[in-house]
Every structure is written in structure tokens, then in C-alpha cells.
Amino acid sequence: MLPRMSRSSSEERIVEAARRLGIEVEIHHFPEGTKTAEDAARAIQCDVAAIVKTLVFTVDDEPVIALVPGDRKLSLTALASAAGGQTVERASPDVVRAATGFVAGGTPPFGHTTDVPVFADIALRRQPVLWAGGGTPSTVFSLSISDLVKATNAVWTELS
User: Fold this and answer.
1) What is the mean pLDDT of residues 18-38?
2) Cα distance between residue 24 and residue 7, in whole Å
3) pLDDT band per the 50, 70, 90 thresholds, residue 144
4) CA 45 → CA 56, 83, 84, 115, 159, distances in Å?
5) CA distances from 92 to 10, 85, 118, 123 (A)
6) CA distance 120 to 135
7) What pLDDT is attached to residue 6?
8) pLDDT tens digits, 43-88
9) 29: which strand partners?
């Protein structure tokens, strides 16, 4: 059984956002950390391809989110094209927090405090069950691919 503890306010926001969408999620804590896809897969004991990396970038200075499987690398060119922009840069931790309300390394794919455009790599559809950041660098939750589609309203395209 995966570890479970009391929830932080970030975790509560995810659970509440999911509940509003008709999705039930359970946040799992891993004190050793789940900041990277490899860390999360090791802690959960799942394939790294089942990890959803929620990456925040700026495209032409506007924040966007890219959802990419843990075993794939984001193509900056593909993200720029999908977002209709030219220049792509990794968002600073301050921009991540301002755009999503969450810290880098624990950002979930939904439940953000602003309407940030979300782009999802179609390779995520290879996995029936996915694991995503649970609001902190040591928390995760699982969800089905159909729930990810429902929760994010993402533009699905090739990003990796």
C-alpha cells in the first residue's frame, strides 16, 4: 500500500479541483521525494512512462503547460508550434508558482490558479493509469487517461 498522510493546502486544492470535475484522487506521500519522473517511478514502483511530467514554460513570454510522459523529452520546437509562438524558455520557479499556484517539482496537470494553456503529448495515451505531481515535490496521485483528458482540457499533439 502506498503511503498516505494529512494533506497540505496545495494537496487539498488538487483534491477539490478533481472533485469538482467528478474525479476522485488520493494523494500519496513519499518523503524521499518525487521531484523527477525517475524519482517518482522509483517511489511508486511503476514504469517511468506512467509518470506525467507537468512542465511550465513560457512561449513568447506567456506561461504554458506541457504534459509529457516521464520517459520522453519535450521538444521545444513542437511546443512553440502547438502554442503558436516562436521563443520558448523554461519558466522560473516564480513564474511556475504565479501561473499554477504550485511549486516546480510538484505541479499537477490541473487545479491551477490561473487559466494556463495546457498541451499534452499524445504518447501519454499509451498508459491506462498515470501518476502526476500532487502539489509538492514529495506527493503524487494516480488518474486514468480519460480523467486526465477530462481534467485538463488540453490540446493533444506530438510534443516529444
Assistant:
1) 91
2) 15
3) very high
4) 25, 34, 37, 33, 25
5) 19, 19, 17, 26
6) 19
7) 54
8) 999 999 999 999 999 999 999 999 999 999 999 999 999 999 999 9
9) 139
- What is the predicted pLDDT for the residue at 8? 76
Residue 34 grid coordinates: 518525487
Amino acid at site 90: R
Q: Report residue 26 as a C-alpha cell.
A: 488520493
CATH number for the segment(s) 9-157: 3.90.960.10
Q: Are 109 and 135 in contact (CB under 8 A)?
A: no
Which alpha helices (H) appear in 45-159, and where do they start and end? Answer: 76-83, 93-100, 145-152
Question: The pTM is what?
Answer: 0.93
